[in-house]
Amino acid sequence: MLTKLKRTALAIGLTGLLASLAFPASAQDGGWDSVVAAGKKEGKVVVYSMALGAPYYLAVLKSFEAKYGIKVESLDLRASELAERVRTEQAAGRFLGDTEIITTTMIEEQRKTGDYIQAVGTIPNVKNLRAPFKATEVSVPAYVQPMGILINTRIVKPEDEPKSWEDLNDPRWKGKILSDDMRPLGSGNTMFAILQKKLGAAFNEKLAEQKPVFSRDMRNDARRVARGEYPIYVPQIFAFASDLKGLPVKVVIPKEGAPYAMMEFAMLKNAAHPNAARLLINHFLEAESQLLYANGWMLPVVEGVADRANDDAKAFANAKLMGPALLEERPAMMELAKKLYQ
Q1: How far apart are the C-alpha atoms of 330 and 229, rounded to whole Å?
Q2: Which residue from 82, 153, 218, 266 lies 20 to 30 Å from 99 (Cα-Cα)?
Q3: CA-to-CA distance for 208 and 188, rounded, in angstroms?
């Protein structure tokens, strides 16, 4: 028979064991200092993103590694490729990624179609988010990716520059618009869906009559416009043109505003380095990290950053937003785009 002292010790030991099983890799209950210590001990974080090698993204990762001594392994993919990689890895029980930066709609879809993500936990810098951006139990805003119109300034005269999305339907641009493919998942369909909602069905019907040329290489497509192959490219993600300075191109923010994708962090299920991942998420919400994005022509999500941007970046960091695409509208919008662009 166990003595009272032994029973007490056994109970304490069992409680500790159960706690360790319930929270196998999280240090959040010990306070943020414990998260920092645990993250440094993990020594690595694996992040899946859609940055496509963007310099501002790489600069934030570099500053994170310098601050914490934690190695970052980053894999850049398009949205559909990223989501499929997460799905196939986790279905196979291969939990290789720790966190992802992906659109809000993709996170919502992951929650509906499978058990791919887990609660993020407390992130101190969430308190610095500006309206209307909010964190949820499973997602934390990282940055906003607005889109406009790219023009070649040698081909498009100042008086002919599109001031409105409606101007794309001017007959002079028929067959001369290069566009991200609007039919599959991606920026092209995001633009299509938002303009359908904001400008009405007639806009997309007329745009289809303009016979835009589709491509799926966004970085190269901007340079094709710079080379003069096409006078116009849509949708131009602001930031993807920030490295074209000195070339004969200009990003137009239409008067109606910019369609955008909300880019957020989510913690992947069974992350091997959850504390390092939370440190990375928190680091992205530091003012200096967000300023790198603002100066890269993205729209920051924390207070007091947009107006600190460089002069050439302020218009983009403070751009009027039209709204994001919604998950529940996606199937209908993809089907409509396929119908209009057969």
Answers
A1: 31
A2: 218
A3: 13
Range of the domain at 39: 2-144+262-317
pTM of this structure: 0.82
Pairing of strands 232-237, 140-152: antiparallel
Q: Are residues 134 and 162 in the same domain?
A: no
Give bridge partners of residue 250 from the DSSP assignment.
151
Polymer length in residues for the chain:
342
CATH of the domain at 247: 3.40.190.10
Residue 236 to residue 241: CA distance in whole angstroms: 7
Of 23, 18, 15, nearest in space to 271 by CA = 23
Give 302-342 pLDDT, tens digit per residue: 999 999 999 999 999 999 999 888 899 999 999 999 999 99
Task: Give the chain's domain count.
Answer: 2
Structural element, H or E, at residue 281:
helix 274-284
Residue with tokens 């299920």: 269
41 and 170 in a single domain? The answer is no
Which residues have CB under 8 Å from 223's CB, separation 6+? 244, 247
Mean pLDDT along residues 190-203: 97
Phi, psi of 192 (to 5 degrees): -55, -50
25 with 114, same domain: the answer is yes
- 9-13 LR contacts (CB < 8 Å, sep 24+): none
Q: Which amino acid is at 124?
A: P
Q: Which of 92, 55, 105 is nearest to 76 (CA)?
A: 55
pLDDT > 70 fraction of the chain, expressed in percent and rounded: 91
Alpha-carbon gap, residue 274 to 25, rounded angstroms: 7
Nearest residue to 100 (alpha-carbon basis) of 88, 87, 115, 83: 83
